[in-house]
Amino acid sequence: xxxxxxxxxTLSVQEGDxxxxxCTYSDSAxxxxxxxxxxxxxxxxxxxxxxxxxxxxxxxxIAVTLNKTAKHFSLHITETQPEDSAVYFxxxxxxxxxxxxxxxxxxxxxxxRP
Amino acid sequence: GAVVSQHPSWVICKSGTSxxxxxxxxxxxxxxxxxxxxxxxxxxxxxxxxxxxxxxTYEQGVEKDKFLINHASLTLxxxxxxxxxxxxxSFYICSARAPGYTEAFFGQGTRLTVV
Lengths: 114, 115
Prior knowledge:
Chain A is an all-beta fold.
């Protein structure tokens, strides 16, 4: 069945250092991979996404890479800041002929140490 | 981006009662909406896909008779938790895709506490 695995579950980095979160997916029908940031008690906010025909995408301090062959994708945050502290979720969208749905990874709690 | 509004933001109900949660797309029409449940410190688990004008599609393990979904218009989907029990206490979030967008937009979530 569809599954998205995410590692690590918690991550603590020094302010200014980089953070990397990795995800793997099981269904080869997945064609869209968004990353969400969720602060406590709030809705998930899309921070970056990548489609299956692209290998890498960057937006300022945030980048995402995708390896379709290996079925894994990663989030990279450089020059981390205290406001980057949150829970991050990767997700994969499965597209079928009559429907589509987004499956989330288990989440990574990122803490930035001052 | 598109705006999805969820109501109420939080609700406390007695065990055995039913609670209705609304999800509205404010500036676009959504033929499909999604309902997720999130327990503390856990991920968003897809419960069901709500289709306007037809029956919802439930994920494996989700009781359709307990979690009633109605998508009567292109801007409104409702989730009713029937005969709520304390173990139903959770954060329920809806999302919808707007025309022209690939990503899903989330409502602000509803924190349900069953006492």
